[in-house]
Each structure stands twice: as structure tokens, then as C-alpha cells.
Here is the input.
Amino acid sequence: MIQKEYGVGFELAKEIYYECEEDAEEYERIFFRKIYPLDFFVSYLDAYCMYYHEFDLSLINANLETLIKEIDSKQEEYKLLSECYKKYSSLPSKIRILKIQALMNAEGIKMSKPDIYNSAAEKNNY
Here is the structure.
């Protein structure tokens, strides 16, 4: 199920990404409005990307299987993360990220970046 949704979500994400000519704010606005209804996978993806403030399509494209395994192994964690994102979606991103992190920690979930995001995060000083 997740893999099927992943294909659709990823294709839409790429389309919107190029439509916005890599304008991050415009991309974020359109991405969540158009793709969010795809349910679990997109709920995971939008929350995860906002949490790390990172969405690198080439990195994700190069690591599809790793990303799918990561989703499969942590469904409950990402479901909660998605709920946190929806709850705080109207806040500015830095405050939203801190609130989400605090709520996840309160639930006993320590967030850690999967290896596929580490290099991008280090490069951008996250």
C-alpha cells in the first residue's frame, strides 16, 4: 500500500517541484495543498520534511528503497509525527519544528535522521 502511494506522491512532488522552479516557499505551499490528500505516505512525507526542513528530490530519488524501508519500519512514529504537523501547521516553521519535537519527545519518541538525510543535513548545517 505504501509503495503504491509512494509512486503517485513522488511523481506529483517532482512535477510540482519543477513547476515552482525550485522556489522553496512556493513549493511548500503548493506541495501540501495538492498532495496532502494522498493520505498516509504524504502525511508522513510532509511532516518528516517539515521536521527536518529538508526535501531534496535527488537524494530521495537515489534512495527510494531505503526510504520505503524507513517508512515501513516506523509507521507509528510517523503517524504521530504527521498528527503533530497537522496540529501545528499554521505556526512559523522554526516554532512548528520545536513544538513537534517537544511533543514527540513527550511521547517518548526520539527523532533521528535516517542515513539518507545525514549528508544533506550536515551540508546545510542542520
Q: What stands out?
A: The longest helix spans residues 2-19. The chain has one domain: 2-123. The mean pLDDT is 54. The two ends are 32 Å apart (CA to CA).
